[in-house]
Specification:
This is PUB domain-containing protein. This protein is mainly alpha-helical. It has five helices and three strands; from the N terminus they run ααβααββα.
């Protein structure tokens, strides 16, 4: 998961505001499910939603991060089945996102795996 976020930051470093907004949006999605995992509306994201497209959809790493959290592509949605909700994973993802948002050096001192 952390590599996914570092990659997102590296690949979009020319637009720090967009990266920050993506991280915050991902935290909202993950946090909503963690707070109320029985609420289906939090476990279902319409990928064609204009706000989703603006904040996450244009960044493959954002979608990959949600998939790593358990979301699956189902037609036009990213869906997290109630049986697939993993609270430990969601809490870990939330902590990682909070670190990415608050740490100005997040991902700066790491290199992609292919460069190591």
């Amino acid at each position: 998961m952390s590599e996914c976020l570092r990659s997102l930051k590296r690949n979009h470093m020319d637009n720090e505001a967009k990266v920050r907004r993506a991280f915050q949006t991902l935290l909202t999605y993950v946090g909503n499910v963690a707070r109320d995992p029985n609420q289906e509306k939090f476990r279902k994201i319409r990928m064609s939603n204009p706000k989703f497209q603006e904040r996450i959809g244009g960044m493959k790493e954002g979608v990959e991060f949600l998939e790593l959290c358990g979301f699956e592509r189902r037609e036009e949605f990213l869906y997290l089945g109630s049986e697939k909700v993993n609270m430990a994973l969601l809490n870990s993802a939330g902590s990682l996102l909070k670190s990415a948002i608050t740490n100005p050096f997040f991902g700066v001192f790491t290199r992609p795996k292919e460069e190591i």
